[in-house]
Amino acid sequence: MKFERTDLLGLEDLTPEEINFILETSESFVEISERPIKKVPVLRGLTVVNLFFEPSTRTRTSFELAEKRLSADTVNISASTSSAVKGETLKDTARNIEAMSIDMLVVRHSAPGAARFLADVLSCPVINAGDGSHEHPTQALLDLFTVKKKRGSIEGLKVAIVGDILHSRVARSNIWGFTKLGARVIVCGPPTLIPPEAESLGVEISYDLVRTIRDVDIIMMLRIQTERLKECFFPSIREYAELYGLDSEKLKSAKSNVIIMHPGPLNRGVEITPDVADGPYSVILEQVKYGLAVRMAVLYLLSGGEFKGENSDQKWSDS
Ligand code: NCD
Questions:
Q1: In this structure, are residues 291 and 58 in contact, taking their beta carbons and an 8 Å threshold?
Q2: The predicted structure's pLDDT at residue 306
Q3: Which of 10, 19, 97, 243 has CB 3.0 to 4.6 Å from 135, enough for a Cys bridge?
Q4: Residues in the chain with pLDDT < 50?
Q5: Considering its fold, how many domains does the chain have in total?
Q6: Which domain holds residue 24?
Q7: What pLDDT shows up at residue 2?
């Protein structure tokens, strides 16, 4: 089977079948990172540019390692070292990079819609690595993949997404992903950090963390997106942490097999205490580990690769 899309811009666009196909393909890439020589030739000869206009540790490293493990040639460009600081437009930057015959572009930008804008301008595939507060599709795919690995299936699970829902692209992409695959999603946070359109996205709303976590299977904690807060949304960090920070005391009311997730970076002591982040229910580092396999799958499928099934002799076609 082939993935018929030319870009990955968000999970809102994808069907449940397409999401499941990416997750299934991702499974086949997990073992590459466990080999002594972590490399396969499926993107040999292709060039991928990672264009990051916002800070990133996990996502940028994960994309670069995924590209390298698929044998692509990679180039990283960050805002501070690009001609954006000299006044060049995003369109000009992207078109100039494309003029050097690149095969794929991974972009992170603070403007919602930036990835779609570039997908319309460029002829190579574009992958959205986060566009402002809009979407972060590979993060949600890796979150879905991690939950599938832990629970076998997404359908019927109850998922709480907690924190700054208003400014979080991770929340938005996960709402699309989990609801499309049949989970129930509850968003929880202070009223000022819940977007007005939340209900129309098919989720429940809660302002009470302790009550919310009592019967959910997954708790996804989010960082307050301070870089996007233009006004004061809550009285103090201390009060926020008291009401919406996950600590071991609040966790006592959760199910005994609850899974705790966080996309990183963590603000320890604010949305999550260190003992919970590093504790037995946390899958935070597994999310990072599986992110690599998911990004390998996305890069592979968008390069036109076919996935022939886990049991096939040759799972992937060489480029
Ligand atoms: C997230 C992001 O950049 O949106 N981080 C990530 O990609 N792992 C979440 C965040 O910054 O809080």
A1: yes
A2: 86
A3: 10
A4: none
A5: 2
A6: 16-136+290-302
A7: 83
User: Residue 10 domain-assigned?
Assistant: no
Asked if residue 167 and residue 118 are part of one domain, the reply reads no
**Matching residue, tokens 């670069």:** 64
Does one domain contain both 249 and 147? yes
268 and 146 belong to one structural domain: yes
Amino acid at 262: H
Q: Is residue 20 part of a domain?
A: yes
Tell me the CA–centroid distance for residue 233 and ligand 1, in Å.
19
Distances (CA, A) of 40 to 33, 138, 183, 284, 300: 10, 21, 34, 27, 11
How many angstroms separate the alpha carbon of residue 91 from the centre of ligand 1?
24
Residue whose entry in the numeric block shows the structure tokens 């036109």: 304
Residue 154: the pLDDT is 98
Output the pLDDT for position 319: 59
Q: Within 10 A of 38 (CB to CB), how many other CB atoms are there?
A: 13
pLDDT 10s digits, 251-310: 999 999 999 999 999 999 999 999 999 999 999 999 999 999 999 999 999 999 988 787
Residues 70 and 187 in one domain: no
Q: Do residues 232 and 155 share a domain?
A: yes
b/e string for 87-107 if b means 16 or more Cβ within 10 A? eeebeebbeebbeeebbbbbb
* CA 260 to ligand 1 centroid distance, Å: 16
Q: Is the CB of 108 under 6 A from ligand 1?
A: no
Atom of ligand 1 minimally distant from the CA of 54 = 3
Residue 230 confidence (pLDDT): 80
Query: What is the CA(207)–ligand 1 centre distance, in A?
Result: 23
pTM, entire model = 0.96
On whether both 77 and 196 belong to a single domain, the answer is no
Q: How many whole angstroms from 21 Cα to the centroid of ligand 1?
A: 24
Q: Whose CA is nearest to atom 11 of ligand 1?
A: 265
| pLDDT score, position 273 | 98
Q: Is the Cβ atom of 136 under 6 angstroms away from ligand 1?
A: yes
**Ligand 1 pocket member 264 (CB < 6 A):** yes
270 ligand 1 Cβ < 6 A: no
